[in-house]
Please model this.
Amino acid sequence: MIDTRQNAIDACQECHLLCQELLAYHGDETGGKQLSSQHIKRLVACIEMCQTTANLLTIRAPLIDQLCEITAHICEQCATSCRSIECEAMKKCANICSQCAGACYEASSRIKKAA
Model:
């Protein structure tokens, strides 16, 4: 049986790293296509929530099911924002964010059922 909690941890870690890399590259004057302040905020929110969620899933923290749902929503917003930018790296980010959202929703659902 697939461990949905571990899948969510892995997805969050992958999403965190990719969004962080994109922000570092695209967020300054020397990098790629310049990003709007709203897109930067979505990337930062995604980075922070994915890292926090991965950490708290690892220790099976209280209320993690709710945190997973919030993280999934933030990842969906980031994915939508990334899709609006014509850039291969942003398309990849959108896909990873969408996968993370799905993994977080699934983990949240399983955690709720187990409670």
